[in-house]
């Protein structure tokens, strides 16, 4: 069983929970809570035993997954920080969680992080990490709650079109057949969706709905990406669907992702003796194979052009990142377009994909990395960081902002997406300052686009061929201020990041393409990040990275502790009902008025969203709906039978 190990009493200890795999019930031999429940009872700390003493840990990659592995090795595993070494090919921690620059040269961030309250693994870690700007004893989670509880997030200009007009985004714009397409997707089994793309499943009209523009721009999905991954996202964020349009379901950090998360976590680890070794690219692992077991005995590392093998001793553990979202990033600026150096179908040997490629050559248990890096045309998009002083762009931003951009409060509340942009261009201004020490008259904006092969509406060129000034021109065009470009450009610095693998983890995949966190037979190797298999979680989130590290640590150290499955909100009847209302364009869904009639005077009335005002008595509307739904008794039975037959047919069909 993946994510399990023998406990002290001989029974398997399940580390990676899977709430969708089996029925849970109270019984004498089950001491664990339901596998998707996260609460204070899960905060227990295992007592280290002889299996931990004297061990060393080697972690390849200092992104959030690598840092989380070090954190859990110390907090729950009982390892000493001095016995943990992190290897990284870069010269700074954080991996894809970056943020750097100055107001003189311009700031740069390759991406941002949208989060919600049920990132249980992330908050489990950061509730024990000291906040940098609060008194001793207050955590990063405390700081996060302080910021977001005082300043709730929402957007008043989520979708725009026609060179500066706000498009109505108060509903998803889904027809009844399109709503059924989404419901059928939720009902389908994961195992039936191998290698199916989103565009193979949905009807053509679906891709012009508000729902798809909101969904694709928020999560960075393309039409040709994995339908399975979209399904997993729908389950993961079912509780947030009614806040998808205005982004009221989201919470954001105070600063950029590097200063908000990486800096305090690195300080926490270094204070406990963890070593980070920079400029060291690990590209292969030496292994001892004995029957079905594999044990890492050495790490092949290249530093400053020199090759070495770091010996891995008996009892030591190794944690490695597979693949990289931001590998091979090409940079540009106001006057230079990015120059991509990675091959379209192979990243080459000097890349962060090399380790996974070499592992996959040893055994099929390590997956198929080529499924993810093999077509950069389908996994690439470009991001833009704008460092802005007062200009017509800032004045236009004020019209679209929830609060004054200089107030320190929520500005745009997330990305603004231009639905008639050939690039599917989006722009956002988060709380300012976005960097500690940022001058008061400077704003940092971030923009990105999804489609890299289409000519811009205004500049007439694909985005990767454009300089920063040309992209700024395209943005001004969609904001309706193209005639003021010169004034904007004189007060704006633009830095570009073209990332060939930024959505590689969304590429269509099948069972076995991604390795398990602890591949079958591996005695001391755990794999982490966005390209490993988990039971029900998604990719492209900080929480999923932390989850993989946590599963790896608990499994390899043999800890009697479980990593809970994703939050059980997808099973909550309240979330199911409000999601149904949201998918029905905020109108009562079929049967909802009848539910109000049945439950309106009961203890459970509060699970139902309020009904819109109606002409005539509510009970009359419920009776009409009941008559419409059921008709005569015979018609009712026929309707029920037909519905079950229809659902069975939907589940069996590929669409």
Automatic annotation (TrEMBL):
Pfam families the UniProt entry points to: MCRA
Protein's organism: Methylorubrum podarium
Transmembrane segments: 57-74
Highest taxon of the lineage: Bacteria
EC number: 4.2.1.53
Keywords: Lyase, Membrane, Transmembrane, Transmembrane helix
Record-level Gene Ontology MF annotations: oleate hydratase activity
Entry-linked InterPro entries: FAD/NAD-bd_sf (IPR036188), Oleate_hydratase (IPR010354)
Entry protein name: Oleate hydratase
């Amino acid at each position: 069983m993946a994510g399990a190990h023998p406990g002290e009493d001989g029974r398997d200890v399940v580390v990676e929970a899977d709430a969708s795999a089996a029925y849970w019930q109270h019984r004498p031999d089950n001491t664990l809570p339901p596998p998707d429940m996260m609460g204070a009872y899960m905060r227990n700390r295992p007592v280290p035993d002889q299996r931990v003493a004297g061990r060393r840990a080697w972690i390849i990659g200092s992104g959030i997954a690598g840092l989380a592995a070090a954190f859990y090795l110390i907090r729950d595993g009982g390892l000493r920080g001095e016995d943990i070494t992190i290897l990284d090919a870069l010269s700074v921690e954080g991996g894809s969680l970056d943020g750097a620059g100055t107001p003189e040269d311009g700031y740069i961030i390759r991406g941002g992080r949208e989060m919600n309250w049920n990132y249980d693994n992330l908050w489990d870690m950061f509730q024990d990490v000291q906040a940098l700007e609060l008194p001793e004893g207050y955590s990063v989670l405390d700081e996060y709650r302080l910021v977001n509880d005082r300043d709730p997030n929402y957007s008043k200009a989520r979708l725009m079109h026609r060179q500066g007009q706000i498009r109505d985004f108060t509903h998803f714009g889904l027809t009844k057949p399109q709503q059924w397409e989404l419901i059928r997707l939720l009902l389908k089994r994961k195992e039936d969706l191998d290698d199916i793309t989103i565009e193979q499943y949905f009807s053509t009209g679906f891709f012009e709905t508000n729902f798809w523009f909101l969904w694709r721009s928020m999560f960075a999905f393309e039409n040709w990406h994995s339908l399975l991954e979209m399904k997993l996202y729908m389950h993961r964020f079912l509780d947030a669907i009614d806040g998808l349009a205005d982004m009221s379901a989201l919470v954001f950090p105070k600063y950029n992702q590097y200063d908000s998360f990486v800096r305090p976590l690195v300080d926490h680890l270094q204070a406990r003796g963890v070593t980070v070794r920079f400029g060291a690219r690990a590209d292969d692992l030496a292994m001892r194979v004995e029957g079905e077991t594999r044990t890492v005995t050495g790490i092949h590392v290249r530093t400053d052009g020199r090759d070495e093998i770091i010996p891995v001793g008996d009892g030591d553990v190794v944690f490695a990142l597979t693949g990289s979202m931001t590998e091979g990033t090409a940079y540009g600026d106001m006057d230079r377009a990015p120059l991509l150096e990675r091959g379209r179908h192979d990243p080459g040997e000097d890349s962060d994909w090399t380790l996974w490629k070499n592992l996959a050559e040893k055994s099929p248990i390590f997956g198929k990395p080529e499924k993810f890096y093999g077509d950069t045309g389908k996994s690439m998009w470009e991001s833009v960081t704008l460092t802005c002083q007062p200009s017509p762009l800032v004045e236009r931003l004020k019209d679209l902002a929830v609060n004054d951009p200089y107030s320190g409060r929520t500005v745009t509340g997330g990305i603004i997406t231009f639905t008639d942009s050939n690039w599917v261009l989006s722009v956002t201004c988060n709380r300012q300052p976005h960097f500690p020490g940022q001058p008061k008259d400077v704003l940092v904006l971030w923009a990105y686009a999804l489609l890299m092969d289409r000519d811009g509406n205004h500049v007439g060129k694909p985005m990767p061929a454009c300089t920063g000034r040309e992209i700024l021109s395209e943005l001004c065009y969609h904001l309706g201020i193209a005639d003021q470009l010169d004034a904007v450009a004189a007060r704006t610095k633009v830095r570009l990041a073209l990332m060939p693998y930024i959505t590689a983890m969304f590429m269509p995949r099948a069972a076995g393409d991604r390795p398990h966190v602890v591949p079958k037979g591996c005695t001391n190797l755990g794999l982490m990040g966005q390209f490993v298999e988990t039971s029900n979680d998604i990719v492209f989130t900080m929480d999923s990275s932390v989850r993989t590290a946590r599963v790896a640590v608990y499994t390899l150290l043999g800890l009697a502790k479980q990593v809970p499955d994703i939050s059980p909100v997808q099973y909550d009847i309240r979330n199911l009902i409000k999601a149904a209302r949201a998918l029905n364009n905020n109108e009562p869904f079929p049967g909802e008025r009848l539910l109000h009639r049945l439950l309106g005077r009961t203890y459970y009335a509060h699970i139902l969203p309020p009904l819109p005002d109606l002409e005539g008595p509510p009970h009359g509307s419920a009776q009409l709906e009941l008559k419409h739904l059921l008709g005569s008794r015979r018609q009712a039975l026929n309707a029920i039978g037909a519905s079950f037959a229809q659902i069975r047919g939907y589940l069996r069909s590929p669409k």
